[in-house]
């Protein structure tokens, strides 16, 4: 067995991959949010449709997109493996658990939060990514150039109060997931210092509030504008 396979099969290696894939997905959230905020530009969807066309035609973005799906899959797989390992390591639960004294609610429920977010992701991909790639979309013309009108299907989805509520609620779960995962990833990578760890936790808390809040703001604004 090579050192690579040994590392990947060890608990430490699995935690390391969880941290690395998690940090990549955190970076992806920032980039994805920057693109989605163009939905709020009052131009009838022109900026967003041009952005979507650029993302779909750029070879580098296509490679990153495939990598993103791979990292999501790895993140899920290693989360399951680590969860199973933790259960085997502690088969008998304590009679009295005082979790709140030494851990947060988010840290004790990362598996549940991750499962909910995976369900959200599958619904989200089916409603948008699948439709853009394989569905029959309307078109829009800007400066004599025809574009897929991705804005139209987004606007239609965000006019549905049930989907908007589901989206906003999922962003709440994302906030809890990030509130633990952000700092935990840095700690796993060994960036755990008495001087810098409090700052990392504060930045992580701010990130876990700001990014999901901005994501949730988009469907809310578009719903009330429709």
TrEMBL record:
Keywords: Membrane, Transmembrane, Transmembrane helix. The chain crosses the membrane at residues 16-40, 60-81, 110-130, 150-178, 199-224. The keyword Secreted does not apply. One of its GO terms (cellular component) is membrane. It comes from the Bacteria. The keyword Protein transport does not apply. This is Succinate dehydrogenase/fumarate reductase cytochrome b subunit, b558 family. It comes from Belliella baltica (strain DSM 15883 / CIP 108006 / LMG 21964 / BA134).
